[in-house]
Structures are given as structure tokens and as C-alpha cells.
């Protein structure tokens, strides 16, 4: 059983990772694709929270077929948060290849 503090740390990491990934990708993407090699659960939790505060919007994948799934993208407010994260990374000396 994990501790509440450990769960908060994992959620915080997943939240940051999710916002950065959505910002870098720049187009609608499924939760499964967004999670990549990371655990899907924390990614979904981050997406739900971001949906609640309207930093992320959702729709259905445009692909034809039986297994259409929800896709997610950053709203204008979400893009603002993404840019703030990038600025903080740059000022902390972590660098980035993205230019504002």
C-alpha cells in the first residue's frame, strides 16, 4: 500500500509530464498514447483534473472504426500553463528546444 504523500508526488509528476507532453505534441492524443511507457492510471488522473479546471478539452478520435477513443488537447489556458512550465525550466537551467 502506498502512502498519501507518495501518491501526491506521483500525481504531481504525472500532471507536469501530461501538460508538457500535450504541449509538445500540439494535437489531440489518446490517454494511452500520451502515457507511453508510464503507468496509464496517473495519466488519466491528471487528465481528469486538467479537464475539471478546463486546461484540457476532450473529444472523440476522428479515426474510423469500432474502437474510437477519447482524445485530449490543451485549451488556451492549458497552453498558458505549458508556456509557464517551459519558462520555469529555462530559468532553472534545464533548457529546452522549444521557442516562445
The residue-averaged pLDDT reads: 84
Distance between the termini: 42 Å
For the largest beta sheet, what order do the strands appear in spatially? Answer: 1-3-2
Question: Please, how many helices?
Answer: 4
Class from secondary-structure proportions: alpha+beta
Major pleated sheet: 3 strands, antiparallel
Using the CA coordinates, give the radius of gyration.
Answer: 14 Å
Helical residues, percent = 55-70%
Number of beta strands:
3
Q: Provide the β-strand percentage band.
A: 5-15%
Assembly state (oligomeric): single chain
User: Which regions contain 5 or more consecutive residues with pLDDT less than 50?
Assistant: 96-100
The dominant shape is globular
The arrangement of helices and strands along the chain is HEHHEEH
